Amino acid sequence: QVQLEESGGGLVQAGGSLRLSCVASGRTFSTYAVGWFRQAPGKAREFIGATIKSGSSTYYADSMKGRFTISRDNDKNTVYLQMNSLKPEDTAVYYCGADPKLHNLVVVTTDKNTEVEVWGRGTLVTVSS
Predict the structure, then answer these.
(1) Strands 10-13 and 123-128: what pairing?
(2) pLDDT tens string for the chain (129 positions)?
(3) Which of 29, 41, 44, 81 fits a disulfide with 24 by CB distance 3.0 to 4.6 angstroms?
(4) How many whole angstroms separate alpha carbon 45 and alpha carbon 85?
(5) Around 52, how many Cα atoms within 13 Å sit in the side-chain half-sphere?
(6) Across the chain, where does the E strand assignment appear?
């Protein structure tokens, strides 16, 4: 099983950009699909998008298309989340999750019977107006 650690969060002004990283430990990273999620204060965790094991294909929630881009580098055991044109409502703790099945990452926030195998601890992103 892998372990995940997010980094790259911080304070940014509205309109700015940030790139988050999700670094995995363990030699089996390439056998996991990896997703990005966020959770704003007082709100449920929200799915942003996920990349398949090879990184050659990525799936995004409809509401996240356009400003968020996920990329993957299996040589570095890292998945990135590039966030552009940030808004105050993007303020949240951002998490990465990993599971052998992409489907589990896509539905975990809407299906209470689905679990994701591994979660990171999150990194806080604060967007000021």
Answers:
(1) parallel
(2) 899 999 999 999 999 999 999 999 987 899 999 999 999 999 999 999 999 998 899 999 999 999 999 999 999 999 999 999 999 999 999 999 999 999 999 999 999 999 999 999 999 999 999
(3) 29
(4) 21
(5) 5
(6) 3-7, 10-13, 18-25, 33-39, 46-51, 58-60, 68-73, 78-83, 92-99, 118-119, 123-128
